[in-house]
Amino acid sequence: MTDRLSDFLFVSEPSGLANLKAEGVSDEKVFYTGNIMIDSLVSNLEVANKSDILKRLGFKRKEYIAMTMHRPANVDNPDILKSIIGAVQKISKRMPVVFPCHPRTQNRLEEFGLSQTSEGAGLRIIEPLGYLDFLKLQTESRLVLTDSGGIQEETTYLQIPCVTMRENTERPATVDIGTNVIVGTDPDKIAETALNAIKGKGKKGTVPELWDGKTAGRIVDILLDQLP
Length: 228
Hints:
globular; six-stranded parallel sheet; about 50% helix; 2 domains
């Protein structure tokens, strides 16, 4: 519906162009401008680099794994949540995992009786972080475990291996081009992929075209050219 109502459609990756063409949207309305979220990341990197989050947590650069998890499909099912936490605990025996825990996830850990057993080995659950602190944490990590769409994009730009604990992604460029690997919720596959990345055998990707922090400028230029 949004595609039909829009006069201009600004696309972040090649799959968007293919999807809109399949929908029958006129090429005249579609513009490949890059990923606007990467603009936010690029504009905040310098400030984020000044964060002292690693010092506060006692971690050193590239000697830990960053993790996020909040999607209902993962955290609302006690069996899935327990199996993912089990896989992460296995990984954390090899390298520490720091997990800024989303309130939804924390509530489910407590509800399912997993809060007391979740931490252990090298798994460290902390309170949620602000954007700049988490960006610093992510930037300096060896790899990232996540079920977040945005983090798949950020790690691709930052060239950090990303292990996505979902069955699919709405950011296919991060898999086709970037550093992202979709592993689902199978604990053995999660652990195997992460442990390989720790050993330096993680996926090596590239940054998609036009993910350069200049998307907003391209959009403005198009609007100025197209609007009366």
